[in-house]
Amino acid sequence: MIGGIFPILIKQILSTSTFDKEPPKVQCEGFDLRIYRWTQAMIFAIEEINNDPALLPNISLGYRILNSCASSTNTLRAALTLASGAEEASATSHCPPAISALIAESGSSQSIAVAGILGPFHMPIISYSSTCACLSDRTKYPTFFRTIPSDYYLAKALAALVKHFGWQWIGAIQSDNDYGRNGILAFKEEVEKFGVCVAFVASVLRTYTRDTFLEVVEITAFGVTFALCISCVLGKTIVVVTAFKATFPGNKIAGKFGHAQQRVIICSCTLIQVVICVLWLTLNPPYPHTLFTYSNRMIVLECKTGSEFAFYAVMGNIGILAIICLILAFMARKLPDNFNEAKLITFSLLIFCAVWITFIPAYISSPGKFTVAVEIFAILSSAFGLLICIFAPKCYIILLKPEKNTKKHVMGKTIS
């Protein structure tokens, strides 16, 4: 009998015990398709061994797989359940026999707990994902093996990278568990050999799974990046308007608008978006939601926004910046033809606003993977709209009409 422990469901539903009745059974949620494929690989390998008489003649392997919910406590409970067996049971008993080996676990913290408990009983433990270098200590974990390299080699590779670029002061971020703490410790030991100082080490409580982390990064990067882009266009628009109005007598404010003011506008507008995203991720972050309704043969993960208000705040901030920029560019539409920067910005922002106005209802009504397709289309079309409308005419002048690429032509002056 081979035991297996996998975090197929990746989050434990916490419950409060009142101690006046039997505690409820552990319940988990959050189906992880990647981990489920690992369980299928274990089952497939055992079946292949059983079907090949040359490997284990006259011996058939059995298996029993339990879920750990990615929790050290549940992993220990599952390991003890698998290893305990029923010695007093008769030959006709339906109780499963004790296991001969254990395939566990994905997290280093869980593997440390299991190897520490079952190691003294000479139980072979094979991990498929735990990379902590501490698990290579044969005095503590004599029966632990793994099919993945140790973090020791990753630490040496990262240290070699630091040496290659000649960095002297660096910061590091670790997850607040055995994997993160031991990994950073090994990394610090390696870089200190090259005289590198680790300026600071920040610990982050790891509460997100891989899929959740990717959803969060995707939405945050989208919101902050577009806010930065529109802020840059807004700064450019203000430069165009103020530069033209600076030619009017008595206009002192327009003449004082320079690069420092542009940076202030760009940084402040982007900072507002960053603050909104930080509050969103802290209070009610997005999360992947498993759907089984759209296809009986597929499991679809869609991104739930978590806080609808925060989602529309992110979109609304981008929209407000775009509308302000569009209004300013529209006000400067009557600039001379040679000085047509505002017209180009106006056309580009018209395309941008049109795309994102149609994006919101399409995004909300699109199911599952189609939301990603809608989002990618909106990002690409609006980005290319901005780039083509603003930079295509400039490239035309530079490449095909170089005689117009002069300050005199832009200012409307001719050579007598």
TrEMBL record:
A Pfam short name: 7tm_3
InterPro entries attached to this UniProt entry: GPCR_3, GPCR_3_C, GPCR_3_Ca_sens_rcpt-rel, GPCR_3_CS, Peripla_BP_I
Source superkingdom: Eukaryota
GO cellular component, one term: plasma membrane
Assigned keywords, A-Z: Cell membrane, G-protein coupled receptor, Glycoprotein, Membrane, Receptor, Transducer, Transmembrane, Transmembrane helix
Transmembrane segments: 219-244, 264-283, 309-332, 344-364, 376-399
GO molecular function: G protein-coupled receptor activity
Subcellular location: Cell membrane
Residues in G-protein coupled receptors family 3 profile domain copies: 194-414
Gene3D superfamilies: 3.40.50.2300
Recorded topology in the membrane: Multi-pass membrane protein
Matching PANTHER family: CALCIUM-SENSING RECEPTOR-RELATED, EXTRACELLULAR CALCIUM-SENSING RECEPTOR-LIKE
Protein name: Vomeronasal type-2 receptor 1-like
